[in-house]
Design goal:
The protein has about 325 residues and is α/β, with parallel strands linked by helices. The chain has helices at about 65-75, 105-110, 125-150, 190-200, 220-235, 250-260, 265-280, 300-315; strands at about 20-25, 30-40, 85, 115-120, 165-175, 205-210, 240-245, 285. The chain contains 8 helices and 8 strands; from the N terminus they run E-E-H-E-H-E-H-E-H-E-H-E-H-H-E-H. Helix 2 (about 105-110) crosses helix 3 (about 125-150) and helix 5 runs parallel beside helix 7. The radius of gyration is 20 Å and the shape is globular.
Length: about 325
Amino acid sequence: MLGARGPKNRVDPNLPYAWLVEPEPTASGNVEDVATVFLTNRECPYRCLFCDLWKNTTDERVVAGAIPRQIDYALARLPPARHIKLYNSGNFFDRQAIPYEDYSDIAHRVARFHTVIVENHPALCGAGCLEFRDLLKAGAKRQIPEREERGMPYSSDVRGEQAPQLEIAMGLETVHPDVLPRLNKRMTLNDFTRAGEFLSQNDIAARAFVLLKPPFMVEDECVDWALRSVEFAFDCGVRICCVIPTRSGNGILDRLAAEGDFAPPRLASLEAMLERGIALARGRVLVDLWDIERLFQCPHCGLRRAERLRHMNLSQRILPPIDCDCA
C-alpha cells in the first residue's frame, strides 16, 4: 500500500495546512457557521486503505506548543463561528499526533465555542476523551474573569461558564461484513459500538463518517450499504452522519481502479443516499461535497444537482430532483 503512494505535500509543523468556515445544520434545526482548522501533525498509524489524508502530515511528532500555535494562527484569520472542528488527518487522542501536554492550552483556546469537534479512531476513545472534556469545562470557567480583566463584552459566540459540547467524529466507513475487514481499518463493528456507548455514557456527542461505495463494492449495492451503515451509527448513539463519496488519488485506490476493484460512485447514488438518509428522520445526514465536480458527467446539470445537495444538507429536507435530458 505504501509503495503505491506519491509524495506528500510540503507542510509547516507550526502552521495548519488549511482553515475555513462553512455552515452546517444543528440538532435544533438552525444553520450555524462551523470553523474547521486542519491541523498539521504526524501521520495516522492506522493507514486505512481508502485514506488520502496522509498527504498533509509530518513524519515525526510535532513539538509541544505547535498545535496551540496552529490554532491561534487559524483563529486570527477566520471569521466568527459558534462551533469548531479540530481535524488532524488522524486521531486527536493519538499522543504521537497531538502532544498530551498541549491538551490544556488547546482546550483554553476553544472553550468559547458551543461545540468542539475532533476526529478519533474508535479504539482510542477512552480516558483522553474524558480528560479533554473536563479541560474544556475548566477552560470555559476561565473565560469570564479573563474577559472581565480585559474589559471585553460578552458576545453571542461566547459560552460563559457553560462548557462546550465535545463531539468525537469517528470513521465507521461501512458495515459490509466482507468490505470492512479489507479496508485496513483495524476495527470491528463491536469496537465502534463500544466507542459509541462510552461516549454516550460520558456526555460526549458522536458523529460518524460513512463511505459511499468503498473499494470492493459494486454500484448497485452502494446506497443500500451506506444506508445500513448510517442506521447502525444511529443505533450506536451517533447524532450526525457524514457520507463521503469514496475518491481516488491516494495511490492504492488508483491501482485498485486499474484492477477493476474500485470506481467512484455515481452522482445519482450520492443523491439517492442523501434522500434516503434524510427520510430516516433519525438524525442529521450530510453528504460530503468536497471535489463533487469529479462526479459530474453532464455539463448541463452537474452544478445544479450539487447545489440541490448543498441545500438539502442545510435544510435536512428532500427537495425536488433536477430535470435534465441526460437522465
